Amino acid sequence: MQDVILEIKDLTIYYETDKETVKAVNGINLIINKGETLGLVGETGAGKTTTALGILRLVPDPPGKIISGEIWYKGENLLTKTEDEMRKIRGHEISMIFQDPMTALNPVLTVGEQISEAILLHQDISKKDAMIKTMEMMELVGIEGIRHSEYPHQFSGGMKQRIVIAIALACDPSLLLADEPTTALDVTIQAQVIDLIQNLKKKMNMSMLLITHDLGVVAEICDKVAIIYGGQIVEFGDLEQIFNHTKHPYTIGLFGSIPNFKKKSHRLKPINGLMPDPANLPDGCTFADRCPNVTEHCRSGMIETIEVEPGHFVKCINLLESGDR
Amino acid sequence: MATLVEVKNLKKYFKTPRGYLHAVDDISFKIEQGTTLGVVGESGCGKSTLGRTVIRLLDRTSGEIYFEGKDISDVKGAQLKALREDMQMIFQDPFSSLNPRMSVSQLIAEPLLIYKKCANKEELNNQIAKLMDTVGLALRLADDYPHELDGGRRQRIGVARALALSPKFIVCDEPVSALDVSIQAQIINLMQDLQEEHGLTYMFITHDMSVVRHVSDDILVMYLGSMVEFADSEEMFQRQLHPYTQALLAAVPIPIIVANKERILIKGEITSPINLGNECRFAKRCPFVKEKCLHEIPPLLEAVPGHFVACHYVKEINHL
């Protein structure tokens, strides 16, 4: 049995406005073991970022509300913590890398000030020592330490993302939440940043939740994969199970939508239709309207999650009825 | 097959306070009718500027552009307007390229009205309905506004607008980059169907190597305004001869599990395109850089039949 660092149980997060309730996250269960990287994969509006914000209790309230669930981090339920206790955890125990390095940094503070801010907040050291640590962090992510007095606009996109990573890692967190850390970057720069994150993760023995829509990135760095659709985990398993024994029709559709880089096929097989409106989710399976194998049973009641092989979970009732396909 | 578009030694420089920015630097190519030229490169390599210069949205600095054998480098006024009927563009961002104050039907009608394509209201409405049907937009959306639609549907409006005048040539500037993968595949399929039905010719600008392989007949790789490699799609994916293309392809994460994947990481980032000297554009990041690369721009030469590469040491690097 491996050490569990984070366990999410039945997490439900809604955004409630006067007009409607947006059901962003609906009863998610996730486990991240120590040293592991879990990929959370889904499309725009699937609830990926809301889940990550939920873990840090940063869902903007109002309109966002954590309706139910438990988030166990190192044996403690984060949802019962006070705001003061959470502040000690954020950036220290659990850190986050945001998607867009262009907007995640404060344009009127030097990058050094922004990195040392995190250090000073969580560690009882002098400003001078914090700056020494800051320069070490910058060297660690591949930027010369003497550039600490420069402002974000003096760095390129890839460099800015390195600074964001330095801030996130400054206090040696145990868990890193990376929200599309390379989406805004060019491929050659993306490869450099992925490489950097991989190396640092190993060096610092961190666990990571990687949020992405790119199955290519997942194949490169993740140990486990959770596919999220309409605020629910529709498939969960290790890399091998998700990529080579794909079970859920949505996951199959995702793979069919990607042009194959190694072989030219004549036509892509897209998933028909669109994501359901999270303010108006259908009864039964959220994927039913787009599913090629839909039956009448899909449209009502709770869809159970089935363990099709050890550690491989699929939320689809057709698998039960027709057996393993 | 006839050549539809031909570009010879095209240059587009922008004047900046610090000197000239070489956005497009001496590029030549041909696109045969009914085929797709894929243009790949990273942000800032000049691929969008190239597309815009070719269809005369930007004026070139020097070089020639031919369309159906006619030199269109300097056409102006009414002639240029007539030319635009044959050359259209699909823009990257369906969120900012549509006027938020126009409804779907107004947006699609706009080109038809400007070019006075319809004699009366009825004909116009028929034409709009036909276009909406072609790109897979339900008629009930005709009175909706762009903000009410998702990205995929908005991009369909962009496609319908580009198709409205039955053009022969469409420059597609990252048409699917802003879309989710499942929607991206729908739009790519739509564009391929339209190409087959109407014999369209595309210039497809993208940074996504998997998409470019899927849609292109020929591929042009750009780096810092210059063309570093050109070949047909099959050949290009069989073997990449320029060190930049090799690194670019190696950097793409592939959704297949490969044990111990090795890859060449290129160091550093794209350098400034302002006031470029006589050096190979890629020299500062190239793992094979030698003295000569810093003093002489490598010409684009046919390294193997049909495969053009701009590198002094292409033969040595690839053991040709």
What does this structure look like?
The complex is a heterodimer of chains A (325) and B (320). Chain A has helices at residues 48-55, 83-89, 101-104, 111-122, 127-140, 157-169, 187-204, 215-221, 239-244, 249-257, 318-322, and strands spanning 4-16, 21-33, 37-41, 64-73, 76-77, 94-97, 175-179, 207-212, 224-229, 232-238, 306-309, 312-314. Chain A is an alpha/beta fold and 325 residues long. Chain A has an eight-stranded mixed β-sheet with strand order 6-7-8-3-9-10-12-11, sandwiched between helices. In chain A, strand 7 (175-179), helix 7 and strand 8 (207-212) form a beta-alpha-beta unit. In chain A, helix 4 packs across helix 5, helix 4 packs parallel to helix 6 (157-169) and helix 6 runs parallel beside helix 7. The model of chain A has no long low-confidence stretch (mean pLDDT 89). The longest helix of chain B has 18 residues, at 181-198. Chain B has helices spanning 47-54, 77-84, 104-114, 121-134, 151-163, 181-198, 209-215, 233-238, 243-251, 314-318; strands at 3-16, 19-32, 36-40, 62-67, 70-71, 87-90, 169-173, 201-206, 218-223, 226-232, 301-304, 307-309. The model of chain B has no long low-confidence stretch (mean pLDDT 91). In chain B, the strands form two sheets. In chain B, strands 6-7-8-3-9-10-12-11 form an eight-stranded mixed β-sheet, sandwiched between helices. In chain B, strands 2-1-4-5 form a four-stranded antiparallel β-sheet. Chain B is α/β, with parallel strands linked by helices. Chain B starts with a strand and ends with a helix.
